[in-house]
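Progress note, project year one: complex with 2-acetamido-2-deoxy-beta-D-glucopyranose.
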Amino acid sequence: MGNLLTTAFLAIVTFAHWVAPSPDLSKSYAPIYVDCPPNINWIRSSSIGLSLDEALWVQGRKQVVLDAFSSYLERLTPDAFDVGEYTRRLKQSNYSDVPTLGLAISGGGWASAFTGTGALRALDSRLDAAVEQRTGGLLQSLTYISGLSGGGFPTVSFSTSNFPTADEIVDQWRPEIDRLSDDTNNTDYTASSSSMFADLTAKFKAGFQVSPSDYFGRAWGYEFVPGARGGLNVTFSSIVNLSNFRDYQMPFPILQLADINKNDVEYFGFQIPSVNTTIYDITPFEFGAWSGSVNAFTPTEWLGTRLQNGSTVNASACVRGFDRASYIMGSSAGAINMWYIENLSNGTLAPFAKRSYTKRQNSGSAVPQAELEDLVTAFQEYFGENKSSMAYANYPNPFSGLSSSSSSVRDLADLELVDGSESGQTIPLWGQIQPPRGLDLVIAWDSSQDGHPYNWNNGTSLYNTYLAANASGLPFPVIPPASTMINRNYSTRPVFFGCNTTLTTTQNTQMPGPIVLYLANAPYSAYTNFSYGQTTTSREQMSEIFVNSFNQITQGNGTLDKEWTTCLGCAAIDRSLARIGMQRTDQCERCMSRHCWDGKYDNRKPGVIDPTLLLEPGLGFLEWNKTHPF
Ligand SMILES: *[C@@H]1O[C@H](CO)[C@@H](O)[C@H](O)[C@H]1NC(C)=O
Ligand SMILES: *[C@@H]1O[C@H](CO)[C@@H](O)[C@H](O)[C@H]1NC(C)=O
Ligand SMILES: *[C@@H]1O[C@H](CO)[C@@H](O)[C@H](O)[C@H]1NC(C)=O
Ligand SMILES: *[C@@H]1O[C@H](CO)[C@@H](O)[C@H](O)[C@H]1NC(C)=O
Ligand SMILES: *[C@@H]1O[C@H](CO)[C@@H](O)[C@H](O)[C@H]1NC(C)=O
Ligand SMILES: *[C@@H]1O[C@H](CO)[C@@H](O)[C@H](O)[C@H]1NC(C)=O
Ligand SMILES: *[C@@H]1O[C@H](CO)[C@@H](O)[C@H](O)[C@H]1NC(C)=O
Ligand SMILES: *[C@@H]1O[C@H](CO)[C@@H](O)[C@H](O)[C@H]1NC(C)=O
Ligand SMILES: *[C@@H]1O[C@H](CO)[C@@H](O)[C@H](O)[C@H]1NC(C)=O
Ligand SMILES: *[C@@H]1O[C@H](CO)[C@@H](O)[C@H](O)[C@H]1NC(C)=O
Ligand SMILES: *[C@@H]1O[C@H](CO)[C@@H](O)[C@H](O)[C@H]1NC(C)=O
Ligand SMILES: *[C@@H]1O[C@H](CO)[C@@H](O)[C@H](O)[C@H]1NC(C)=O
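Model obtained:
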């Protein structure tokens, strides 16, 4: 990041060149004020279920999914399962019984962004090798994809880029460039920090508070959002205009964020969310929360607009362009408060499941304290913001004055949002497990790096979602704590939860909630536990990451388990069978008994998670590292 104070001085100079907000979002980062449109439903209650827009979109998507899913199932050639009959019955249901499948990519910086993208790639029917291994086509069968923090990078990137293939998107990303080093010139791929500060200044002068989430969003935009100036004109709501969204050719993206409120505990001048933080959900259509203190949604396109009790405060001051994709992505991954506290407490204050403080095989913080101090000082000096306001992403509160909001939200002028992983639920499942979305299977990619000290994963993020779902009465699989996860090797091998409805929170056979496939990033052919804060990645490393995830998704192209890919298909159809009056086949029964958690706990104190390559067990990290210098 370099010396941001110097940078901020440069930004002062740049203020002179600041241009007034233009109605063209590609000219300035400042949101623009317009006359409010008539007939907008500013607030809708979460109790009505899905918004009409989303419900209609999902209907359209299901028809596309059914074609992709049938072909995928045919390639699996499952024993004694009549794919033709299955397809016919789903069609007969007017597509409503077509399984709703989702992928959720955890927080964990670039490590999760790239390993998760590798998983997505291994499910893509546009990749010949994935079709050959018979995992390809599941991506085309997904209705939802969700991300938070580092998992938000690919979620935002694929959806704002009209969903290219993983190999195409890497060329767009140019991951070898470090967007956070400020000695770069402005190019199509990166910007100096003074130019990014100038962007922020335009927003600030238009009357909006700015924060490091804007700054990081701008920087990461040059990597993950397509188009000029770090995707400057791209809003999250503009995804609705992309051809593959309109034609239902991509999954529906959801980003997850957490919030801070005044009762939250404070360390070193920064607050962190309580375990009961409200989890916000943002889609191209809507922003809001299903539960907690909000229970309502507002249109994403008009975020930034001041509302009071569900009406506009000033009918000539509606806001457009607040929801820049880069800002939403920066907000979902903005964890200044956590990074700062983590550094000053030497990693001891980490009350939630979260990524390891240590770098792979080394100790040391992932975000150096000196850089954080510079950033805090720069925001204090140039935007006059104190620590307790600059650390969080600021959103004019659309839920202000609503009687349905709890007082902690109703009385707030602005929401203060933080990295979704600060909820302790680092895998973005919350949006996907809301009953109105009706998920049947969620593939949970975990690279949250909470398995200390080597940055593998111990399942605590998933366990935390189980605790939260159980407390709120949402149907969700029962998940065992980390000791069982580690002792039963779920840190390295795929496992399904909730196959048997007796092992769900509500035990409701009519509304069982989804089966969850837990996939923890693990070393199959490469050590992919590099630090979440690794800001550059060579193409060579990217290729190893992709092959590693491919090997994980395909279980070494079947070498570790010949029947695995079919078992994955069994899990994808399982919940739908009862709805259309079909039975699990013997083969699927066998799969379920082999790959589903059976409800048995192993609470012995687990050892450290330090596996060697699953496909080459003799090759330890130190030896491998000699020939893999990244
Ligand atoms: C099927 O759904 C469509 C909307 O997607 C609706 O127009 C049609 O009437 C439905 N058909 C039946 C038989 O329910
Ligand atoms: C930035 O541009 C200047 C002038 O073109 C050039 O001399 C310098 O090497 C560039 N710096 C970097 C880091 O690319
Ligand atoms: C952003 O600008 C580019 C180039 O001017 C244009 O092609 C694209 O459609 C714009 N995107 C949005 C979301 O307005
Ligand atoms: C979609 O495109 C239309 C036509 O360009 C534009 O009027 C509308 O504002 C766009 N919608 C969003 C959400 O950006
Ligand atoms: C969170 O909410 C649960 C259920 O409402 C409550 O029992 C618990 O005390 C709360 N925890 C905190 C830390 O506020
Ligand atoms: C908020 O609006 C609702 C209906 O739109 C109304 O019933 C209620 O009285 C309003 N509350 C306040 C505090 O104005
Ligand atoms: C309403 O917004 C317009 C446009 O931004 C502004 O000119 C006007 O002063 C505002 N009115 C009030 C009462 O704040
Ligand atoms: C963190 O470690 C440093 C250096 O060892 C020490 O000076 C400091 O007191 C420690 N802080 C805390 C909160 O333990
Ligand atoms: C698992 O991760 C959590 C969250 O980081 C941590 O608190 C816990 O100590 C870890 N447990 C084990 C058994 O590794
Ligand atoms: C589910 O678990 C219950 C209780 O352990 C058992 O009786 C039942 O046979 C199981 N159902 C299936 C389909 O495996
Ligand atoms: C599996 O196939 C992929 C794609 O062809 C390849 O890159 C990988 O090395 C193979 N893995 C094994 C264990 O053979
Ligand atoms: C791994 O290799 C790199 C050089 O390629 C070296 O800097 C690093 O110290 C090595 N890591 C360990 C733990 O030996």
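Confidence is low (pLDDT under 50) at residues 8-20.
The chain has 22 helices and 18 strands.
No further modelling is planned for this target in the current period.
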